[in-house]
Amino acid sequence: MASSTFALTLLRWFRDNGRQMPWRETSDPYAIWLSEVILQQTQVKQGWDYWQRFMRRWPTVEQLAQATEDEVLREWQGLGYYSRARNLLVAARQVVQMGGFPCTLEGLRSLKGVGDYTAAAIASFAFGLPAAVVDGNVYRVLSRHFGIATPINTTEGKHEFALLAQTLLPQDKEKSLPFGGRSVGASSYNQAIMDFGATQCVPQSPRCDLCPLQETCVARREGRVGELPVKLKKLKVKERRLDYVYIRCQGFTAIHRRGPGDIWQGLWEPLLAKKAETLGDCGKLTWLTPHAPVRHVLTHQVLLANFYLLETDVRPSLPPDYQWVTEEELAHYALPRLIERLLQLLP
Question: What's the pTM?
Answer without folding.
Answer: 0.81
